[in-house]
Amino acid sequence: MYGYMKADPNQFVIHYSKGKKKKVGTGICFWYFTPTSTIVKVPINSIDEPFIFEEVTADFQEVTVQGHLTYKISDPARAAEVLDFSLNARGFYKSKDPEKPSKRLLNSVKVYLQEELQTKSLKDVLKGTERLTEIVRDRLKKNSTAENLGLEVLDFNILALKANPETMRALEATIREEILKKADEARYDRRNASVEQERAIKENEFNTEIAVEKKQQEVQETKLAAKRKLQSQNFVVQQEKVAAEIDLEEKNKELVTLQVLNDKEKADSQAYSLNAMLKAYEKIDPKKIQALAMMKMDSHQLIANAFNELAENAGKIGELNISPELLNQLMKKRGGA
């Protein structure tokens, strides 16, 4: 009696005949003699195993962990040596060993979850789902059971982690109170921040006013200093001007004094010369001097001089007759001159 074996690409097949391996491979096809043959078929495709576990946290709170595990048989020859993957005459597995890899891996998952959850409080567990997933995944990839069975863990994820409804309501109430408290604190902080900001604004305004006043004071002081300096310079200039005028007046006084002395000396010199001249003339007869002066006179001057002598000797003259013609002639001559 013969049978025909046609394996899929994701199935690893070993054909034993009389206790010896005849054919080994993935996706192979062959005829075999049923009475003396044993067919071992190991699936090498990825397998997804969902799970739900009830666990207890460190603070004795029940939690439900839901997730899934993905693995594959990476070493089918080794798996076939440890577990029974042989088929019966109808092509079904003879034993339940093909189910054991999933059970053993899930048992490891349960153990790892228990170890981690029993060291953490419920709040920490609910907050640390991602971290818990990473820890269990890393431990599964190093699991000795998986290595012994020729298994490879491809992925592990926790889809949900929940406490019982009553605990969740209590947690929600506590968290709600914390949220409200934080909201109040946030409002208080905002109010304080607003007050602080207002205070900072007022302080900046005051500082600005102080700075402006200080600058104005500096400007006024600078103006006063400049004015004082200008006044001081004007005072110095005025003093120099007064000193110059005083010096000029003193020099003028000296000049006037010198001029007076010079005029006095000049007058004294002229007086001395005139006095000397007069002393010289004292010894000369006046008639001679008059005669000398008359030598340079014209006829009119002589007539005038004669009239002057007549006037001087008017007491001695009894009567003097002057003809109109002579007087008229003298007047014409005088007018013409």
List descriptors.
8 strands, Tetrahydropterin Synthase, Chain A, three-stranded antiparallel sheet, alpha+beta, about 325 residues
Describe the protein in words.
The protein is an alpha+beta fold and about 325 residues long. Among the domains are: about 1-45, no CATH class; about 45-80 and about 95-165, 2-Layer Sandwich (Tetrahydropterin Synthase, Chain A); about 285-315 and about 325-335, no CATH class. The protein contains nine helices and eight strands. The strands form three sheets. A three-stranded antiparallel β-sheet has the order 3-2-5, covered by helices on one side. It has a three-stranded antiparallel β-sheet with strand order 6-7-8. A hairpin with a 2-residue loop joins β2 and β3. α2 (about 100-115) crosses α4 (about 130-140). The radius of gyration is 76 Å and the shape is rod-shaped. The N and C termini lie far apart (about 200 Å).
Write the SSE topology.
Layout (H helix, E strand, L loop, with lengths): L1 E5 L4 E7 L2 E7 L2 E5 L3 E7 L3 E10 L5 E12 L2 H7 L17 H18 L4 H6 L1 H13 L2 H6 L1 E13 L1 H118 L3 H9 L4 H14 L11 H13 L1
Antiparallel strand pairs: 1-4, 2-3, 2-5, 6-7, 7-8
